Amino acid sequence: MPRSVNAVASRKKRKKILKQAKGYFGRRKNVYTVAKNAVEKALQYSYRDRKNKKRSFRGLWIQRINAGVRQFDMSYSEFMGKIHKKNIQLNRKVLADLAMNHPKAFESIVKEVKK
């Protein structure tokens, strides 16, 4: 009995990988074995960096809040401690946006915390 191979499924699998590798440099875009490794590595990076993006943004928000609070002679840690004691339910993302784009509103929050 002859060996049975599913050429349709194999071709589909290879085309899927080569489609994902579109835009890569050199043999990574058109040689299946090289493209497969490149795509696997790219997927690992994308999984890792979806987590790291959240970490990076949190750091950015903290820097922006710190810069905004320093104008009113407070440190970031002091401000965050007092804002939690006052039970003001604003997260870092919102506070950073206020500090950058709405300085008057941010100033009123800082004055409320300083009381």
Distance between the termini: 88 Å
Query: How many strands, which pairing sense, and closed or not: the largest β-sheet?
Result: none
Structural class: mainly alpha
- Percent range for β-strand residues: under 5%
CATH class: Mainly Alpha
> Averaging pLDDT over every residue, what do you get?
95
* Multimerization state: single chain
Low-confidence stretches: none
CATH homology superfamily: Ribosomal protein L20, C-terminal domain
Number of E strands: 0
Tell me roughly what share of residues is in helical segments.
over 70%
Order of helices and strands: HHHHH
Principal-axis shape? rod-shaped
Return Rg in Å: 26 Å
CATH topology: c-terminal domain of poly(a) binding protein
What CATH architecture do you see? Answer: Orthogonal Bundle
How many domains, as an integer? 1
Total count of helical runs of at least 4 residues = 5
